[in-house]
Amino acid sequence: MDIFSKIDPLTKLLSYGVSGFCIVLVVMSFRLIQKEQERDNPRRSILNIIYFFSGINFLNLVVVGF
């Protein structure tokens, strides 16, 4: 598999500017939460930080969208 085939959708999202970047950050936050919750003992402090980061990203997305 070519590495550029994974990067291509990312560059298409980033072509939308700040709103595309916000969407990428929201997806990355979701993946972090998903990976942390797969652990046998999810670290509550890490989950709280990820939730806070997700909230800031969502707020930024709403502000940029309007």
Describe the structure.
Helix content is 82%, strand content 0%. Helix 1 (3-14) packs across helix 2 and helix 2 (18-37) runs antiparallel to helix 3 (44-65). The protein has 66 residues and is an all-alpha fold. It has one domain (13-65). The protein has helices spanning 3-14, 18-37, 44-65. The chain starts with a helix and ends with a helix. The model has no long low-confidence stretch (mean pLDDT 81).
Portion of residues within helices: over 70%
What's the total helix number? 3
Give the ordered list of helices and strands: HHH
User: Which stretches are poorly predicted, pLDDT < 50 over at least 5 residues?
Assistant: none
| Rg over C-alpha atoms, rounded to the nearest angstrom | 14 Å
Give the amount of beta strand, in percent: under 5%
Shape: flat
Q: What is the chains' assembly state?
A: single chain
Give the strand tally: 0
Please tell me the total number of domains: 1
Which structural class do the helices and strands define? mainly alpha
How far apart the termini lie comes to: 39 Å
Largest sheet, strands/sense/barrel? none
Mean pLDDT score: 81
Give the structure's gist in a few sentences.
The protein has 66 residues and is mostly helical.
Task: Name its key features.
66 residues, single chain
Helix and strand arrangement:
Elements: H1 3-14, H2 18-37, H3 44-65
